[in-house]
Amino acid sequence: MLRRILAITQKEFIQTVRDRTTLMIMLSMPLLQLILFAYAIHMDVKHIPMVIADQSMDQASRSYITDMVRSDYFDIISTVQGEADVIHAIDAGTARAGLVIPPNFAAQVDRGSANVLLLVDGSDPFTTQSAYNAANVISQTHAITLALDDLSRSMPAISSQDLSPLTTHINILYNPDLKDLWFLIPGMIAMLLQTQTIALTSLAVVREREAGTIEQILVSPIRPLELMLGKTLPNLLIALINMLTIVVVGTLAFGVPFQGNFPLFLGLALIYVFAGLGLGLLISSVSQNPRQAQQLNMMISLVGLIISGFIFPRYTMPVVLQGIGYIFPLTYFIPIARGIFTKGIGIEFLWGSVAALTIFAVGIIFFAARLFRQRLD
Q1: Residues forming a β-bridge with 54
Q2: Using CA atoms, how far apart are residues 37 and 311, in angstroms rounded to an integer?
Q3: Neighbouring C-alpha atoms within 13 Å toward the C-beta of 232
């Protein structure tokens, strides 16, 4: 059995090394994707282009605008006359947000009932959410500051700290500065590994049919399970090389700290890669031609990306979608990657995901081999 597996493995190695262009693409693509995603994806958007329609032009309005700018969430690109001009700037794409301050803003502040209008471009969800949250926080902070200043002037013997009835101390664990890359990089490593491992083997059996070599394999004493394992091992090495590369780049180039046990992470990543390769073999076994394999690969990668918990938390999804998510190895590895990478936790906190991932990896290989045999019969 071992000799037959090694023979298939040697054949796959020779085919892989012979096509050097494809090999270089397979080795460089995950790194390129990591760099592009890391630089392009930012959920906490700052420096949002904003236009200002300050119809009050007094000290109160300037103080409020100054607080908006100091937050680093908004960059004032121009001033306009009114609401219509703000909407025009947003429609033209020159601004993503606009602030309209009414003419009697200072008097409203003195009465304690000031109102301003913030218009945000809702076509960009990340910009909208960041602008909405930032504007709320800035406005509340500014209002509290004004109220405390008024009370301090009326009661000079009392400090502003004495006037605050509640102080909340917030301690954010693992990512105190709320850096989005610290959240994204571990998930991107898991996502890129699944995308590549499925792509590596999704054409493995189909390629034999297209080349006309499937008949030679059928008349050989090789068994379906041995064929699956033999085709997995060369791609396993390529996937592990890519995993090490993107982990090193993620930690050194993007400054994301690795908090956990690296040998443990490497061992569990090996199981995860094996599971992804097995899923690719399953796709290859059910596909009649390369086009079908590529379409199935794209569909599975896209659906897995959405419902695995990479971007959106799974606990907010309907129960049906949560159940479908369990057919993707990415669903099991994301909590492992984020737990070890970001939190530094051990196997005692991850045993559920590890057990499920191991069962998936073993089961998917056997299922692909069995399906391959049924297709031959």
Answers
A1: 101
A2: 13
A3: 27
Model confidence pLDDT, tens digit, residues 136-156: 888 888 877 777 676 666 665
Q: Identify whether the C-beta of residue 41 lies closer than 8 Å to the C-beta of residue 184.
A: yes
For the chain, the maximum distance between any two Cα atoms, rounded to a whole number of angstroms, is 96
How far is the C-alpha of 47 from the C-alpha of 137, rounded, in Å? 16
- In the chain the domains, ranked by start, together with CATH numbers, are 2-41+178-376 (no CATH), 48-163 (3.40.1710.10)
Assess contact for 325 and 314: CB atoms under 8 A: yes
Query: What's the N-to-C CA distance of the chain in angstroms?
Result: 22
pLDDT in tens, 340-375: 998 889 899 999 999 999 999 889 888 877 776 555
Q: What ranges in the chain are assigned the alpha helix state H?
A: 2-18, 20-40, 59-70, 83-92, 105-111, 125-154, 160-163, 180-201, 204-211, 214-219, 224-252, 262-286, 290-307, 319-325, 329-338, 351-376
